[in-house]
Amino acid sequence: MTDSVKDKVIAIIAEQAVLEPGDVTPEATLSDLGIDSLGLVESIFAIEEAFDIQVPFNANEPDQSEFDISSVAAIIAAVEGLVAAQKGA
Question: What's the total number of domains in the chain?
Fold first, then answer.
């Protein structure tokens, strides 16, 4: 399950960044990839739709969010946690 979550998240981020998935590294930040605040919001919506989850993210206050967007790896880990929590609910 973990690989498919990772692959889907990377594919979503790559699409927003107009990059190939292979160009998106776990240590990259969204700004490293050229994703702006609109791209971030679109990525969040795409992640919510792809995994049927609710992401605790406030676009008006991204620094106050419980959803860690500091790097691609952090986003993957956060999505994995939300998917696991949803399956356990």
Answer: 1
